[in-house]
Design goal:
With 448 residues, the protein is of the alpha/beta class. The protein has 2 domains: 183 residues, Rossmann fold (3-Layer(aba) Sandwich); 154 residues, Rossmann fold. The chain contains 17 helices and 12 strands. Strands 9-8-7-6-10-11-12 form a 7-stranded mixed sheet, with helices on both faces. It is globular and about 55 Å long. The protein binds NADPH dihydro-nicotinamide-adenine-dinucleotide phosphate.
């Protein structure tokens, strides 16, 4: 079956899963040549196998709110592929979570995890539970109830979940406690745990810092660096604020952050004190708009950050947050680099606009792999029951991000079509990640 036929089959089977189909198409258009040139891939039906999850676990989560009412949510774990190691990928708690979103995230995770070079398969999970406006007690009860359903399907050598949107250190710790309680086992079954009880230093910072390390490598290819660059960041969560923090440390001026309500613009740029204030504010679920009373700047209700002139854009909020119009706005505002901190933040049309205008572009599966890479390092620290220092882990993170950059760049160079002025990281990352998972499946024969 050709890649096009596989896509057609998926479109027929899953017409209500647009995010998943979008993610599959993005990979398919970039691997076509290597796929056609390797008869094993066709013989072993590798693309068909990699686009159907090994299994999807779907379950009901009953929990009790503060008023004593029973609430009911849906939970899922999409175990996509364990060709390269135990299933690994985050849990997302957000009302928009559904099977399409989790399948797209789990599918991307296969290639992202492959790119890290660590032994991890791909998975994703979560719930349509909305943590916004919930008390700490309600969050705790929900996390306990969620893992009470999921615990029998995960394990340190089987499937190791972590955080994502709506799931941070607090939630992972609650889920870890329930798992420990139910199984009488203290193991590295979840990553992103609190430091001091199994969690790894730099895991919290890793995705944002890693994205900026990836960007540094891109700039270095063009004999450039972050010093004096103006940066637009979207989102104000874990990835956004740590990406902003690292960019500032390396001499850039970060002009914006945003959330689902609007954009915060500070023409002076954020400094560490302002970033610390933003972290505190978001941790307490307080409005970003309160920033202007304390530090000045402007709050743009309902607007995105791409209307300002800058050199670099870091979309770090959520999928499809940048459409073709936003991408054109970036081009018009002199953006030269777009690095995805979020998963699939650019629509397919937005990617076309960026690439047509020769903007250097790094896809999330390469640029935001730092988070899962440090999760992999957390797993290995848990296995040997030792902790490593912040500095040692930071060096390892930098090294992994450099390797991902170089692997993607060299695959891009090997398979590039034409004389593109920019390194085609999208093609390079997809090919490098796909080949690792595909070659393992060929070696296994018919079994996964
Ligand atoms: P957080 O929950 O910490 O933050 C998400 C941020 O994005 C919040 O500021 C949120 O605003 C904003 N946001 C969410 N939905 C929208 C929307 N529809 N429009 C505008 N803003 C929105 O999540 P993370 O920082 O952990 O994750 C962000 C992205 O990075 C996701 O795509 C995730 O999959 C990806 N990622 C995360 C990793 C991690 O280690 N955490 C690892 C790799 C990728 P509000 O508070 O108003 O909802």
């Amino acid at each position: 079956m050709s890649l096009q036929q596989v896509i057609q089959k998926l479109e027929d089977l899953y017409p209500h899963q647009p995010e998943f189909i979008q993610a599959v198409k993005e990979v398919a258009i970039t691997i076509e040549d290597i796929y056609d040139n390797n008869t094993n891939y066709n013989t072993y039906k590798i693309f068909e196998r990699l686009t159907e999850p090994d299994r999807i676990i779907s379950f009901r989560v009953n929990w009790e709110d503060d008023a004593g009412n029973i609430q009911v949510n849906r939970g899922w774990r999409v175990q996509f592929s364990n060709a390269l190691g135990p299933y690994k990928g985050g849990l997302r708690f957000h009302p928009t979570v559904n099977e399409s979103v989790l399948k797209f995230l789990g599918f991307e995770q296969i290639f992202k995890n492959a790119l890290t070079g660590l032994p991890m398969g791909g998975a994703k999970g979560g719930s349509d539970f909305d943590p916004k406006g919930k008390s700490d007690n309600e969050i705790r009860r929900f996390c306990y109830a969620f893992i009470r359903e999921l615990y029998q399907y995960i394990g340190k050598d089987l499937d190791v979940p972590a955080g994502d949107i709506g799931v941070g250190g607090r939630e992972v710790s609650y889920m870890f406690a329930m798992y420990k309680n139910l199984t009488h086992e203290y193991s590295g079954v979840l990553t992103g745990k609190g430091v001091g009880f199994g969690g790894s230093l730099i895991r919290t910072e890793a995705t944002g810092y890693g994205a900026v390390y990836f960007l540094e490598n891109m700039l270095a290819v063009n004999n450039d660096n972050l010093q004096g660059k103006k940066v637009l960041v979207s989102g104000a969560g874990n990835v956004s604020l740590h990406a902003a923090e690292k960019a500032i440390m390396l001499g850039a001026t970060v002009l914006t952050v945003s959330d689902s309500k609007g954009t915060l613009h500070d023409a002076q740029g954020f400094d560490q004190q302002k970033i610390d204030w933003l972290k505190e504010q978001k941790a307490c679920h307080k409005p970003l708009a309160e920033y202007i009373e304390k530090f000045g700047g402007e709050w743009l209700e309902g607007q995105k950050p791409w209307q300002f002139k800058a050199d670099i854009a870091l979309p770090c909020a959520t999928q499809n947050e940048v459409d073709a119009t936003n991408a054109q706005q970036m081009v018009d505002n002199s953006i030269k680099y777009v690095v995805e901190g979020a998963n699939m933040p650019l629509t397919a049309e937005a990617i076309d606009v960026i690439r047509e205008h020769h903007v250097h572009y790094a896809p999330g599966k390469a640029a935001n792999a730092g988070g899962v890479a440090v999760s992999g390092l957390e797993m290995s620290q848990n296995s040997v029951r030792q902790y490593r220092s912040f500095e040692e882990l930071d060096e390892q993170l930098k090294c992994i991000m450099r390797n991902i950059h170089d692997d993607a760049a060299s695959a891009a160079q090997q398979y590039a079509k034409g004389d593109e002025p920019c390194v085609d990281y999208m093609t390079g990352a997809n090919i490098a990640g796909f080949k690792r998972a595909a070659d393992a499946l060929v070696a296994y024969g018919v079994l996964n």
